[in-house]
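The freezer alarm interrupted the setup, so I double-checked each line after restarting. Inputs confirmed:
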Amino acid sequence: MGDKFQLIHDVSPGTAGWTVKVVVAEKFSPRVAQRSPTKYQNLILMDSEGSTVQATLYGQNITTFQDELILGKTYLISNALVKETNAEYKAKSGEIQWTISGRTRIRRVEENNSNLLISTYSFTDFEDLPKYMDSNVDLSVIGMIIDIKPRRIIQTRFGKECQVQDLVLVNKRFDTVLLTMWEAFVDNECKYICQNLKKKTCSDWKASQSLSISTKADSSFFIDGEFELVEEFKSWGHTNSEIIDNMISEKHYLTSTPSKLFSKLSVLTDEKDFTEIKSIQGLKTVKQFFWIKGRASVKVLNQTYWYMSCNNCNKISSENYGDIYPCVFCKCTDAKAIPRAKVYMQLTDPTGYINATAIGNPAEYFLQSNAQILMNQTLIPTAASMRLSIDEDEIFYVKAITQELSPDCKFEILFIVNPSQIAGDKNKGKAPVEHIGEPIKFLEPTTKRSLFHSDTDDAQSSKKKCDKSTIEITKKNQ
DNA sequence: CCCCCCCC
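Predicted 3D structure, all chains:
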């Protein structure tokens, strides 16, 4: 890791223009907030000095960035939202948290910093595992996978059905342990391991497949995509390929496993990991559309009247104007970063007022400006530089988004129609042909889910899954 | 369709 970049400690709330090179040291499973339907995912990032910072992803960004921030990989990160952790919860003052969102710039660096990462782990010897049985401690082990058993369904003591799958690990002393993967780990990590197993010849695989497992909290465990994480196991595997071959083919560690030795180190018993159905039953986002005839004006002058966007999907971009880049949202490989107008304003009619946001065309129409001008404008605008209020009635098509736990609706202006454009009452109730706004598109509801996302998506519906992996002890192989 | 923020 070079040192031309800042370190985690150099970045405080308000620090500008920073870039930190980090390794994704831990990646926790996405969770649903206890007091709101918000989904969040915490990561631990580590810089070249081994300092760490907690980074959080929210909502849709979790799936958006899941292939972007891979455990064990190195990234250059800039422009994350940096703030002190909530005073209500922080253990000590000065604790910093990064929020990763669409405006965060993330660049993959092809560097292997696994040694740095590994150096922060303390691994428990397989032979010491029995003393931790049933103690519910978090620990890490390191080893090579030499077998994957079929997945199976078990019933927990609460009657819940869980899918599990066993892996057999071997360490450098040829001790074996059975690692049981639970729920989402079966769908994700086990599937991933199996895929790689099929792609490679047996000797390639066993010689290079190495991993470290952390049962820390609900953290994912490490499996490096290219299996380069634990170099030392590569050479060990090559040197001892005959013995490992024999273990794989003979499987004598299985026949010599007394079932009574199977005892879980940790069981999912934490009641607070489960969600009461009644607390999620009524939750839904209500969206309503309606028309308002009235006037609009900007009340908050000091706001940002634009954001950098993807020319393909309009989502926020972390790139510089004009740059061609792969968009994390729409996956367009040659997206272009272009400004998009945005304005926060107040709508009034004789009965009252609401605050509303307009984005894109309606914003440009209202401001009588365009995104590029807005982007280049450095001073707080005045009425001379853009229109800040409309002095005659216009018709606004507004979307209301009611948010759980937020007392106020948020309003968004989808388009603006000048009343003169509407000829008489014949068009009443119809969308006008000429409107100032985005083209109206009627899209089939789409789902962005893919198989590999099912973990996160299920996590919010069924709340927290039991995604801990437990280590079960098998008889040693010698 | 887009912005903002969000959790322990």
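Quick read of the result. The longest helix of chain A spans residues 184-199.
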